[in-house]
Amino acid sequence: MDDVAKHAGVSRALVSLVMRDSPRVSDHSRTKVLASANELGYRPNVWARNLASGQTNTIGVMLNDFNNPYFAELAYGVAESATENGMEVLFTSGWQREAGELAAIDTLLNHRPDGIVLGAARIADDLFFDIAAQVATVAVSNFSRPDSMDTVCNDEAFGADLVVEHLTSLGHTRIAHIDAGSSPGGPQRRRGFSHAMAARGLAPIVFEGDYNEQAAHDASVQLMSLKEPPSAIFAANDLAASGVIAHLRDTGVSVPGDVSVVGYDDTVLAGLGAISLTTVAQPMKLAGRRSTELLVERIGGRDVAKHELLRPELVVRSTTGPVAQ
Amino acid sequence: MDDVAKHAGVSRALVSLVMRDSPRVSDHSRTKVLASANELGYRPNVWARNLASGQTNTIGVMLNDFNNPYFAELAYGVAESATENGMEVLFTSGWQREAGELAAIDTLLNHRPDGIVLGAARIADDLFFDIAAQVATVAVSNFSRPDSMDTVCNDEAFGADLVVEHLTSLGHTRIAHIDAGSSPGGPQRRRGFSHAMAARGLAPIVFEGDYNEQAAHDASVQLMSLKEPPSAIFAANDLAASGVIAHLRDTGVSVPGDVSVVGYDDTVLAGLGAISLTTVAQPMKLAGRRSTELLVERIGGRDVAKHELLRPELVVRSTTGPVAQ
DNA sequence: CTGAAAGCGCTAACAA
DNA sequence: TTGTTAGCGCTTTCAG
């Protein structure tokens, strides 16, 4: 910094002001300093800056799983909004294991970001409290509502209702849901489905599954061996829907000719030409944007918790059709 | 730190030694200090530590795209190996755009990790030099070989040869490759394919495509309208293969009855029950592990570049079969 | 806009 | 094994 000051013929304090984008520097000085900095290959040392200022201008994001497009969208939303707010973003992954999540959060906390967003973390509630006590925190897709932190969730009940509405409008009445057990969002989707069916005077058929192909495949086997198999299956998510479709195809059942299938999440695989799955799109990018904004507010001083509920949309593709005559 | 020292009744220096896992501290003092630290909720301030020590014990990873399982595996390998080496990992994404990559690398550089991994970065070669001059760097899946940095690549030619060997052993002779143009790895795969075909006395059919569904779909349309359409198609990657399969299915061509299709990368979508694609698996997790290890060596003082070439494997699923009679 | 001075929380010699 | 003493590179405050 001294070198830059010398090179530009100004004081160290001025260089500091320029590097911090202070408004009270003349344009002339600013360009001069910037030029010198560039020429000397000077890059402010964040550690020193953080140490002195107590701020990082960085937000940390813990993603339960890098392998899930659902989180990729969330990450993108956070990054986009953070850039607009002049902040940087660092990511860690929990690799789908709770121990991994803990380590990931620890890494984040070690680097002391100004705020963190927890993507569908499956850690215990009191750990959430611990974390929120240390740094501004927003939890995404976590339905517990501790008042110490903000949350952003999807309106799962509304999504389930969209699915039921779509299927009934196609004439389906025997509709089955393969759920996600107690995995995050699972209970909400199941409840939403049951309500939506009941509201239309239909009996909800629910089988236990999970957010993966195998569990859904197995549930599908049971489902199709019922005396009166359903004419439509609403799977826990896209991956589960893929498992169902694979099973139906293997057993010579036409999709959507004989049975309609709906997924959830609108991940890349749903859009694949070879699958083309009707599904429910969650606004994860928006969730990411909102998370960043909530964090910025928190950092700015807000101290009451906010809880957001986002509305999903139905994306109709080729795996749903009129009920067979 | 002072508080902890006071609480434990020792010197600040001792606390520092304990926090750094120094071997020359008595077990008695260590447990005492650790207990106090825990009780007081003390967490060493990394900024101060980094500033004073000049080290972060962190490695940064730039992934071109969070949405690609190919990178997720790489990330996992890096993380796993880093943990074993007592280091932490921070990720950024380039969101598939060059400007994004630059920003992502900048964020990483700002936090001054001990080393960085560049996952299939598409930035210019001289930028690589710039970066490698600032910090220990390893480039993954980048075939330029500047001696200032280590590289880890997949043996694309070998992978292409595996595909050709598999298809010819099934009796195919009219085999087409939809390539990835000049995208990373594309030229290598194309060349490997041509060599493998030529080595077996077969004429290589090559159409230009890219690493996405649409480009492959379009190429497939052209390919199938040839006077003598191929009996097997080797796509640039799994996504491209999905585009090909969608087109074939839409036009009533049976896979693999009429035409066999092979992908590349063995991403999740290849394993999907609804697709079940024969593909080439790249050892990306291993690539991640090797990257970390190379970095650790570099940080440890090695100053000659190492370049690694990893061997892919063929994964046979349901989209390839004997040539139609 | 400048210059000086204090200090962020820690590490790294060195001496005790 | 412990205590002491300098910094690490920056921000912040304040008077000019």
Notes on the protein architecture:
The structure is a homodimer of 325-residue chains. The first copy, chain A, is α/β, with parallel strands linked by helices and 325 residues long. Chain A is built from 13 helices and twelve strands. The first copy, chain A, is elongated. The N and C termini of chain A lie far apart (78 Å). Chains A and B meet through helix 4, helix 5, strand 2, helix 6 and helix 11 of A and helix 4, helix 5, strand 2, helix 6 and helix 11 of B. The first copy, chain A, binds a DNA duplex (16 and 16 nucleotides) through helix 2 and helix 4.
- Report the sheet with the most strands of chain A, covering strand number, pairing sense and barrel closure: 6 strands, parallel
- What is the CA-based Rg of chain A, rounded? 25 Å
Q: What is the subunit organization of this protein?
A: homodimer
Strand order of the largest sheet of chain A: 2-1-3-4-5-11
Q: What are the segments of chain A in which pLDDT stays under 50 over at least 5 consecutive residues?
A: none
Distance between the termini of chain A: 78 Å
Briefly note the structural class of the backbone of chain A: alpha/beta
Order of helices and strands of chain A: HHHHEHEHEHEEHEHEHEHEHEHEE
Summarize this structure as a short list of keywords or feature phrases.
homodimer, 325 residues, alpha/beta, 6-stranded parallel beta sheet, 4-stranded parallel beta sheet, 13 helices, 12 strands, elongated, DNA-binding
List the helices and strands and how they pair.
2 copies of one chain form a homodimer.
Chain A: H1 2-8, H2 12-19, H3 27-40, H4 46-53, E1 58-63, H5 69-84, E2 88-93, H6 98-110, E3 115-119, H7 125-134, E4 136-140, E5 150-154, H8 156-169, E6 175-178, H9 186-199, E7 205-207, H10 213-224, E8 232-235, H11 238-250, E9 260-262, H12 268-271, E10 279-281, H13 284-299, E11 307-310, E12 313-315
Parallel strand pairs in A: 1-2, 1-3, 3-4, 4-5, 5-11, 6-7, 6-8, 8-9
Antiparallel strand pairs in A: 10-12
The structure holds a DNA duplex (16 and 16 nucleotides).
